[in-house]
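Pair request: fold both.
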Amino acid sequence: MKDLYKLTYSQIKDGLSKKDFTSEELTKSYLTRIESEDSKIKAFLEVDHNKILNQSIESDKRRKSNAIFSDLDGIPIGIKDNICIEGEITSCSSKILANFRSPYDATVVSKLRSKGFALLPRTNMDEFAMGSSTENSAFQVTKNPFDTSRIPGGSSGGSAAAVASNMVPTSLGSDTGGSIRQPASLCGIWGLKPTYGRVSRYGLVAYASSLDQIGPFGNDLNAIIDIFETIQGSDLRDQTSAKDKTFSSKNVTIKSWKGLRVGVMKTEETQSSPSVAKRYEELKTKLANEGAVIKELDFSLFKNSIPVYYVIATAECSSNLSRFDGIRYGLRVEGKGKLDDLYVESRSQGFGNEVKRRILLGTFSLSSGYYDAYYGKAQKARVLIKKQYDTFFKEVDFIFQPTSPTTAFKVGEKTKDPIQMYLADILTTTVNLAGVPAISCPAGVDENGLPIGMQLTANHFDEENLLSYAKMFGEFPETKITLPDSIQ
């Protein structure tokens, strides 16, 4: 039973139900895998073996007495380091919160506990979710399991790499401008960004509140469906959570491609590398051959999505991160006796360079004399982007495009040029600006064996159809990706 870590999420769920193995045996297999491989990947910041094993032992007791919480009882799940778990450190991979222990559970964590999941905190991330490569963590750089000289994407790179290296079957991340979908693409797994408001943000440490959304990663699509169904729903503690919107996995079914209206981009508009562009063309042809109606959409309005996104996101981060001041919690560095010095020293030593850069950008765009020129215009452009999606979904059932314009790039390749790093999100940010749902699906590998991902986007609260289309897409043989067993 030592190789249980090789099982897909669906096989794990089935095996636990049939009592082919116990949750304890399964969890020990994953912990052994973490011990042997995470020194190469650095997906986890911390793994408390005893706490995790105790959860699995309690699950086995419930199964033995037929008092299980659900058919998901005892399945391990990784948790990103910006999602609060009572009594656990929630550092957002930042020095300023390195010793902060959360006094409460995030709503999504409470919901996972109610189903019996075994929680594996904490997966590494870009500090305060600000980054596209997981190189901005204050503690370690996470590597891509397919090639450890390359990045796994970000900011949820630890959660993605943990799944792709078979250290957990599923995990939670957060997506502000592509932070679930882009690492899912680069790591060859599934990653869902739900409709804004579908999943409570209570207990998620905020980066940009109007853009952030928690979502799942999985080594198969059923993990995405089950986790999303578990964590979605309204929450009185999050007034932005959607009311009277219920998702049911029973409505995720295999449909026919025939007659489905699929919106696509011109390949040159994707600004993709040759290997990604080639796969995109092949799969567009595949969809047409299956009977889908391919409709080329006008994406010209989206050409300025990166500056629009970064003006809005940095403005919100400037406000959200003002609470980390060395007074109430987190790192406190005494200054020269003056209150202002305490603020300056605590924040200077606590925040990394990318966080400082974004706070400065956001503060500038909100400052007197520049608010209308930058933030005001960005908000107007955001409204136009949302209206454009509304128009698109009157013409098509879903939009099909690459998730990332490239496969995983080398560690350190883009760290000296922030603009090039920001452009890694060029195909994902508009989804967050409009609040619509999107999923990154594995789409095979390039000539170097590096994963390629394709993104499916649907209208607001249309996850049932979105996941149905994703299930159909996953049936294509050319999209299959084998996760690496040996990590080099």
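--- second member of the pair ---
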Amino acid sequence: MGQLDGQTGLVFGVANKRSIAWGIAQALHDAGMRLAFTYQGERLKETVVELAASLDPTYLVLPCDVTSDDDIAAVYSAVGEAFGGGLNTLVHSVAFAPKESFAGLFVDTARADFAAALDISAYSLVALARAAAPLMEARGGGSVITMTYLGGERVVPKYNLMGVAKAALESAVTYIAFDLGPRNIRVNAISAGPVRTLAGRSIPGFPKMEEYVRTNAPLRRNVDIEDIGHLATFLAGPGGRNISGETIHLDGGYHVMGMGVPVE
């Protein structure tokens, strides 16, 4: 018997087998949770359908553009029907910034790019949590889990616009946690270290970033999607029942460091 037997979850953000959302989905499934998935655009449909079916061929897979309120409403309507009117866990692993925003200076960010990044990366959590709340309340409460990165707290060169979007996301976590707490809905962010996803590796200098963290983190290692899945399962389960509004660092302890290599 898994610790999440009888529970249901909705996962946003699976793009391929290296996705953080996929690592979380695998862990939740292994713990006994029944899942539904969404995909962004027809290009990703086949991949997400195949991955979901590899866990359970009956899992629901739905299209969703998180900038569309109509799409979000349609997803939650279908999920509510499939899950008997309730939902226990929402996984939000959605972020976007134009590729060119990682290459230049943050101060040169275009207004339209800023608006798109904040809408998709941060406001989407607001919209998805709001829509999930009635279904979670029907189950007596629930857990909302999103993904962030240290670049939302400190300057990480080349992270640029995405860092500002993550800062907005982390602030949104605290306000949503306050709003939904009386309904027994917990809202938390996992701040993982550099992970070898396709999106992560598109950031200029990612291999150096990954090596620097591995070399200087107290535990002297990086994290992977399996590690993130274990933490998400904890947050979705009874161990996380009194944790809300937190940004939990999962980076081998790197976030505590003020300097890297010790000064001789």
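Observation on the second member. The helical segments are 20-30, 42-55, 69-82, 111-138, 160-180, 206-216, 225-236.
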